[in-house]
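Holo prediction — adenosine-5'-diphosphate.
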Amino acid sequence: MTRSPGGPPVIEFRAVELTYPGPPAVHALRPCDLRIGSGEFITVMGPSGSGKSTLLNIAGLLDTPTRGRYLLNGIDTQAMSASRLAALRGEHIGFVFQAFHLLPHRSAQENVELAMLYQSVPRRQRRMRAAAVLERVGISHRAAAPPTQMSGGERQRVAVARALVAEPSLLLCDEPTGNLDSATAESLLELLDTLHRDGMTIVVITHDGQVAEHGHRTITIRDGVLSDPTRHRGAR
Ligand code: ADP
Ligand code: MG
């Protein structure tokens, strides 16, 4: 038996694999078991094309495994309809991407409010919650500005605010510092550290070893083969 650090598993992969049919078939993720406990801060490292985004997209319910089972917060997602998956994703997961994916001409405030559009949050509450989360990530002074008038670091803070506004239990970040200079990257990582201290479960993909130092467990992946240090430790 292996134990996962942290609380009860948020992410549990049981022999999960993903193959793109091709031809030629691409084994983007070879069969793997993975447990990430509540409150953990995990980094995923590996060269380009190794399967990092595939892993994150499965964890984030953006992609479904070819085989195996994925349990999110103990909920078996196998055979769920696309609409149930979308609802589960909206309730449990926040995403941050390398390229920010903000609406360029809407204000930071509007970008965050729009993330609540499909949940039945009344307008006034949407406004208040967006303002509060922008404050939390330290960007409230730029709430009225559109991303086109922001630095990369500011944009990524808005993206983090948007990811947090629905109060997810899991924050998934795909190379969040990939477009940032090293000082700005460090400051974003400090924000993630703060969120982690407040109890958020965080998974960050990176190919930067300095980023990986922020997590307390690093999973590596190479040619679709995942290696997770906890799996080599015996139960204690
Ligand atoms: P990483 O994020 O580590 O750069 P990815 O998870 O994006 O890697 O990709 C893993 C492998 O799967 C790569 O060989 C990539 O070319 C391949 N791949 C990714 N998406 C697709 C797709 N839609 N169709 C076919 N192959 C894909
Ligand atoms: Mg990728």
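READOUT: The chain has one domain: 9-232.
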